[in-house]
Every structure is written in C-alpha cells, then in structure tokens.
Amino acid sequence: MGWSAIPLAVTLGSLGLIGWYLSRSLIGLFELIALLALSNICLGAWLIWALAT
C-alpha cells in the first residue's frame, strides 16, 4: 500500500463528508451534482495514479 493509501483515504473522507452534509441538511440538486462530480474526480484521479504506479 504505502503512498497509494493516501489518495484513497482522501476519497473516502470526501465521500464521508458528503454523507454527513446530506444527512444534516436538505441539499439543492446543483450542490448534490457538484459534490458527486468532485468525489468522482477524486476517485478517478486515485485510480489513474494507482494504475500508473
């Protein structure tokens, strides 16, 4: 694992933060789309980085 665990932890942390935000407030559709896009970018970047190393 080593360094590859760090981007994964960041991705999981961002997903957890999104879940917490959704659970504590009603969220607008635009905000939800933006948060999902951000989490997908993080996950995609981690996958590319993991495959490249």
How many separate helices? 2
Shape: elongated
Terminal Cα span: 11 Å
Question: What summary fits the major beta sheet?
Answer: none
Number of domains: 1
Describe this structure in words.
The chain crosses the membrane at residues 6-22, 29-52. Keywords: Membrane, Transmembrane, Transmembrane helix. The chain is mainly α. The protein has one domain (2-52). It is built from two helices and no strands. The protein has helices at residues 5-24, 29-52. The radius of gyration is 13 Å and the shape is elongated.
Q: How do the helices and strands line up, and which of them pair or pack?
A:
Layout: H1 5-24, H2 29-52
Helix pairs in contact: 1-2
Please tag this protein with its features.
2 helices; 53 residues; mainly alpha; 83% helix
Give a short summary of the structure.
The protein has 53 residues and is an all-alpha fold. The chain is built from 2 helices and no strands.
